[in-house]
Specification:
By secondary structure, the chain is α/β, with parallel strands linked by helices. It is built from 9 helices and 14 strands. The strands form 2 sheets. The chain has a 7-stranded mixed sheet. The chain has a 7-stranded mixed sheet with strand order 7-8-9-10-11-12-13. α8 runs parallel beside α9. The protein is globular, with a radius of gyration of 17 Å. The two termini are about 20 Å apart. About 50% of the residues are buried. Bound molecules: zinc ion (2 copies). One zinc ion (ZN) binds near residues 11, 14, 61 and 142.
Protein backbone atom coordinates (compact mmCIF):
# COMPACT_ATOMS: atom_id res chain seq x y z
CA UNK A 1 0.00 0.00 0.00
CA UNK A 2 1.44 3.35 -1.04
CA UNK A 3 0.24 6.67 0.37
CA UNK A 4 0.92 10.22 -0.80
CA UNK A 5 1.06 13.00 1.79
CA UNK A 6 0.91 16.55 0.51
CA UNK A 7 2.01 18.51 3.57
CA UNK A 8 1.80 21.86 1.78
CA UNK A 9 2.67 23.57 -1.49
CA UNK A 10 3.08 27.13 -2.74
CA UNK A 11 5.66 29.89 -2.92
CA UNK A 12 5.96 29.90 0.88
CA UNK A 13 6.90 26.24 1.21
CA UNK A 14 6.65 22.82 -0.39
CA UNK A 15 6.78 19.38 1.20
CA UNK A 16 5.42 16.08 -0.08
CA UNK A 17 5.95 12.57 1.29
CA UNK A 18 5.38 9.14 -0.20
CA UNK A 19 5.14 6.13 2.09
CA UNK A 20 5.16 2.46 1.16
CA UNK A 21 5.79 -0.64 3.31
CA UNK A 22 6.39 1.55 6.36
CA UNK A 23 9.17 3.55 4.64
CA UNK A 24 8.69 7.18 3.66
CA UNK A 25 10.62 9.52 1.35
CA UNK A 26 10.19 13.27 1.64
CA UNK A 27 10.27 15.29 -1.55
CA UNK A 28 11.33 18.78 -0.56
CA UNK A 29 11.45 20.27 2.91
CA UNK A 30 10.48 23.86 2.22
CA UNK A 31 9.04 24.68 5.63
CA UNK A 32 10.96 24.88 8.88
CA UNK A 33 11.75 21.48 10.41
CA UNK A 34 9.35 22.21 13.24
CA UNK A 35 6.55 23.11 10.83
CA UNK A 36 7.13 19.93 8.82
CA UNK A 37 6.97 17.92 12.07
CA UNK A 38 3.70 19.65 12.98
CA UNK A 39 2.17 19.06 9.56
CA UNK A 40 3.30 15.43 9.42
CA UNK A 41 1.61 14.83 12.77
CA UNK A 42 -1.60 16.48 11.52
CA UNK A 43 -1.55 14.28 8.42
CA UNK A 44 -0.77 11.11 10.41
CA UNK A 45 2.69 10.51 8.92
CA UNK A 46 5.25 9.25 11.47
CA UNK A 47 8.41 11.14 10.45
CA UNK A 48 10.67 8.47 11.94
CA UNK A 49 9.74 6.43 8.86
CA UNK A 50 11.51 8.93 6.60
CA UNK A 51 14.48 7.14 5.03
CA UNK A 52 15.58 9.95 2.71
CA UNK A 53 14.92 13.58 1.85
CA UNK A 54 14.90 14.37 -1.86
CA UNK A 55 15.32 18.04 -2.80
CA UNK A 56 14.24 19.23 -6.23
CA UNK A 57 16.35 22.43 -5.96
CA UNK A 58 17.89 24.85 -3.51
CA UNK A 59 15.25 27.61 -3.39
CA UNK A 60 14.07 28.31 0.16
CA UNK A 61 10.49 27.22 -0.50
CA UNK A 62 11.88 23.73 -1.26
CA UNK A 63 14.90 23.36 1.02
CA UNK A 64 14.32 25.59 4.07
CA UNK A 65 13.99 22.84 6.70
CA UNK A 66 16.16 20.19 5.02
CA UNK A 67 19.40 20.58 6.99
CA UNK A 68 17.80 20.44 10.41
CA UNK A 69 15.38 17.67 9.46
CA UNK A 70 18.16 15.54 7.92
CA UNK A 71 20.12 15.82 11.17
CA UNK A 72 17.13 15.03 13.37
CA UNK A 73 15.99 12.08 11.26
CA UNK A 74 19.53 10.95 10.35
CA UNK A 75 18.27 10.74 6.78
CA UNK A 76 20.45 11.15 3.68
CA UNK A 77 19.73 14.09 1.38
CA UNK A 78 19.29 13.27 -2.29
CA UNK A 79 19.91 16.13 -4.72
CA UNK A 80 21.52 16.87 -8.05
CA UNK A 81 25.25 17.64 -7.61
CA UNK A 82 24.75 21.32 -8.51
CA UNK A 83 22.02 21.71 -5.90
CA UNK A 84 24.25 20.16 -3.26
CA UNK A 85 27.04 22.61 -4.05
CA UNK A 86 24.65 25.46 -3.21
CA UNK A 87 23.39 23.84 0.00
CA UNK A 88 26.38 22.04 1.39
CA UNK A 89 27.51 24.93 3.59
CA UNK A 90 24.34 24.55 5.67
CA UNK A 91 24.19 20.78 5.58
CA UNK A 92 27.13 20.09 7.92
CA UNK A 93 26.94 16.39 8.85
CA UNK A 94 24.23 15.34 6.41
CA UNK A 95 24.99 12.47 4.06
CA UNK A 96 24.57 13.40 0.39
CA UNK A 97 23.51 11.00 -2.33
CA UNK A 98 23.55 12.38 -5.87
CA UNK A 99 20.54 11.91 -8.12
CA UNK A 100 19.98 13.10 -11.65
CA UNK A 101 19.55 12.01 -15.21
CA UNK A 102 21.75 8.95 -15.15
CA UNK A 103 21.65 7.96 -11.48
CA UNK A 104 19.06 5.49 -10.21
CA UNK A 105 18.86 5.38 -6.45
CA UNK A 106 17.14 2.82 -4.24
CA UNK A 107 15.60 3.86 -0.91
CA UNK A 108 13.80 1.04 0.90
CA UNK A 109 10.98 -0.09 -1.40
CA UNK A 110 11.47 2.91 -3.71
CA UNK A 111 13.41 3.45 -6.89
CA UNK A 112 14.09 7.16 -7.27
CA UNK A 113 14.53 8.61 -10.76
CA UNK A 114 14.86 12.25 -11.75
CA UNK A 115 15.41 14.54 -14.71
CA UNK A 116 16.45 18.17 -15.19
CA UNK A 117 13.80 20.87 -15.35
CA UNK A 118 13.79 24.33 -16.89
CA UNK A 119 13.90 26.66 -13.86
CA UNK A 120 16.19 29.42 -12.59
CA UNK A 121 18.09 27.30 -10.05
CA UNK A 122 21.51 25.57 -10.05
CA UNK A 123 20.44 22.10 -11.21
CA UNK A 124 16.68 21.68 -10.63
CA UNK A 125 15.00 18.28 -10.96
CA UNK A 126 11.61 16.67 -11.35
CA UNK A 127 11.41 13.43 -9.40
CA UNK A 128 9.62 10.08 -9.72
CA UNK A 129 9.33 7.51 -6.93
CA UNK A 130 8.50 3.95 -7.96
CA UNK A 131 7.31 1.78 -5.07
CA UNK A 132 7.83 -1.98 -5.06
CA UNK A 133 4.05 -2.55 -5.06
CA UNK A 134 3.73 -0.94 -8.52
CA UNK A 135 2.47 2.47 -7.38
CA UNK A 136 4.48 5.44 -8.59
CA UNK A 137 4.42 9.15 -7.84
CA UNK A 138 5.91 11.99 -9.88
CA UNK A 139 6.61 15.42 -8.42
CA UNK A 140 7.18 18.24 -10.90
CA UNK A 141 6.89 21.91 -10.00
CA UNK A 142 8.91 25.05 -10.60
CA UNK A 143 8.79 24.20 -14.28
CA UNK A 144 9.35 27.02 -16.72
CA UNK A 145 8.08 24.72 -19.45
CA UNK A 146 7.53 20.98 -19.72
CA UNK A 147 10.57 19.60 -21.54
CA UNK A 148 10.79 16.28 -23.35
CA UNK A 149 12.78 14.94 -20.39
CA UNK A 150 9.98 15.83 -17.95
CA UNK A 151 7.37 14.22 -20.21
CA UNK A 152 9.51 11.07 -20.39
CA UNK A 153 10.06 10.92 -16.61
CA UNK A 154 6.37 11.35 -15.82
CA UNK A 155 4.94 8.92 -18.35
CA UNK A 156 3.10 5.84 -17.00
CA UNK A 157 3.12 7.01 -13.36
CA UNK A 158 0.04 6.25 -11.24
CA UNK A 159 0.04 9.58 -9.35
CA UNK A 160 1.25 13.04 -10.37
CA UNK A 161 1.93 16.12 -8.27
CA UNK A 162 2.15 18.82 -10.93
CA UNK A 163 2.52 22.56 -10.84
CA UNK A 164 -0.50 24.71 -11.82
CA UNK A 165 1.07 27.99 -10.77
CA UNK A 166 -0.94 30.75 -12.38
CA UNK A 167 -3.83 31.70 -14.57
CA UNK A 168 -2.31 33.45 -17.58
CA UNK A 169 -4.87 36.28 -17.62
CA UNK A 170 -4.58 36.87 -13.88
CA UNK A 171 -0.79 37.01 -14.23
CA UNK A 172 -1.00 39.56 -17.07
CA UNK A 173 -3.36 41.80 -15.11
CA UNK A 174 -1.62 41.32 -11.75
CA UNK A 175 0.15 44.17 -9.97
CA UNK A 176 3.55 42.47 -10.50
CA UNK A 177 6.19 44.59 -12.27
CA UNK A 178 6.71 43.47 -15.89
CA UNK A 179 10.12 41.94 -15.07
CA UNK A 180 8.54 39.67 -12.44
CA UNK A 181 5.66 38.75 -14.75
CA UNK A 182 8.17 37.83 -17.46
CA UNK A 183 10.17 35.72 -15.02
CA UNK A 184 7.12 33.78 -13.82
CA UNK A 185 5.81 33.16 -17.34
CA UNK A 186 9.27 32.56 -18.86
CA UNK A 187 11.10 29.30 -19.46
CA UNK A 188 12.92 29.61 -16.11
CA UNK A 189 9.72 30.29 -14.17
CA UNK A 190 6.49 28.46 -13.46
CA UNK A 191 3.84 26.41 -15.28
CA UNK A 192 0.42 27.98 -15.92
CA UNK A 193 -2.92 26.23 -15.43
CA UNK A 194 -3.30 25.96 -19.18
CA UNK A 195 0.16 24.43 -19.65
CA UNK A 196 -0.49 21.99 -16.78
CA UNK A 197 -3.80 20.99 -18.37
CA UNK A 198 -2.12 20.39 -21.73
CA UNK A 199 0.65 18.33 -20.16
CA UNK A 200 -1.82 16.25 -18.15
CA UNK A 201 -3.88 15.63 -21.28
CA UNK A 202 -0.72 14.24 -22.89
CA UNK A 203 0.42 12.24 -19.88
CA UNK A 204 -2.96 10.67 -19.17
CA UNK A 205 -3.13 6.88 -19.37
CA UNK A 206 -5.59 4.36 -17.90
CA UNK A 207 -3.42 3.72 -14.84
CA UNK A 208 -3.28 7.37 -13.75
CA UNK A 209 -5.36 7.42 -10.57
CA UNK A 210 -4.32 10.58 -8.71
CA UNK A 211 -3.50 14.13 -9.82
CA UNK A 212 -2.53 16.81 -7.31
CA UNK A 213 -2.18 20.40 -8.54
CA UNK A 214 0.60 22.16 -6.68
CA UNK A 215 2.53 25.42 -6.22
CA UNK A 216 -0.52 27.63 -6.88
CA UNK A 217 0.19 31.36 -6.83
CA UNK A 218 -1.79 33.27 -4.25
CA UNK A 219 -1.74 36.42 -6.37
CA UNK A 220 -2.46 34.98 -9.80
CA UNK A 221 -4.54 31.86 -9.29
CA UNK A 222 -7.41 30.33 -7.37
CA UNK A 223 -8.11 26.74 -6.48
CA UNK A 224 -11.36 26.89 -8.47
CA UNK A 225 -9.64 28.29 -11.57
CA UNK A 226 -6.83 25.71 -11.51
CA UNK A 227 -9.22 22.85 -10.88
CA UNK A 228 -11.65 23.90 -13.63
CA UNK A 229 -8.91 24.34 -16.27
CA UNK A 230 -7.28 21.00 -15.54
CA UNK A 231 -10.49 19.03 -14.91
CA UNK A 232 -11.86 19.69 -18.37
CA UNK A 233 -8.60 18.54 -20.02
CA UNK A 234 -8.50 15.42 -17.85
CA UNK A 235 -12.16 14.67 -18.57
CA UNK A 236 -11.51 14.89 -22.31
CA UNK A 237 -8.61 12.45 -21.88
CA UNK A 238 -10.87 9.98 -20.01
CA UNK A 239 -9.43 10.47 -16.50
CA UNK A 240 -11.51 8.64 -13.88
CA UNK A 241 -9.24 9.19 -10.88
CA UNK A 242 -9.08 11.73 -8.06
CA UNK A 243 -8.11 15.37 -8.68
CA UNK A 244 -6.79 17.28 -5.64
CA UNK A 245 -5.44 20.79 -5.19
CA UNK A 246 -2.58 21.23 -2.69
CA UNK A 247 -2.92 23.93 -0.05
CA UNK A 248 -0.24 26.28 1.23
CA UNK A 249 -1.26 26.35 4.86
CA UNK A 250 -2.60 22.90 5.68
CA UNK A 251 -1.79 19.33 4.66
CA UNK A 252 -4.24 17.38 2.49
CA UNK A 253 -5.67 14.19 4.00
CA UNK A 254 -3.49 11.16 3.07
CA UNK A 255 -4.10 10.05 -0.54
CA UNK A 256 -3.96 6.33 -1.36
CA UNK A 257 -2.06 5.55 -4.57
CA UNK A 258 -3.19 2.38 -6.26
CA UNK A 259 -0.66 0.00 -7.72
CA UNK A 260 -1.34 -0.77 -11.34
CA UNK A 261 0.11 -3.97 -12.81
CA UNK A 262 2.78 -3.12 -15.37
CA UNK A 263 1.03 -5.37 -17.88
CA UNK A 264 -2.06 -3.19 -17.60
CA UNK A 265 0.04 -0.14 -18.41
CA UNK A 266 1.27 -1.89 -21.54
CA UNK A 267 4.81 -2.13 -20.12
CA UNK A 268 7.19 -5.06 -20.12
CA UNK A 269 7.37 -7.00 -16.87
ZN1 LIG B 1 9.08 26.92 -5.65
ZN1 LIG C 1 12.16 27.49 -7.41
Amino acid sequence: MTTLYVLGSGSRGNCVAVESDGVAVLVDAGFSAREIERRAETAGLPLERVAAIVLTHEHGDHARGAARLARRLRAPVLTAPGTWTRLEGDMKDAEHRPIGFCARTEVGPFRVTACPTSHDAAEPLAVALHAADGASVGVAYDLGRPTAAVRYLLRHLTALVLEANHDEVQLRTSGYPPVVRRRIAGSGGHLSNRAAAELLGELHHPGLGVVVLAHLSRQCNTEAEARATVASALRRAGFAGALHVAEQDVPLPPIPVEAVPRVQLGLAL
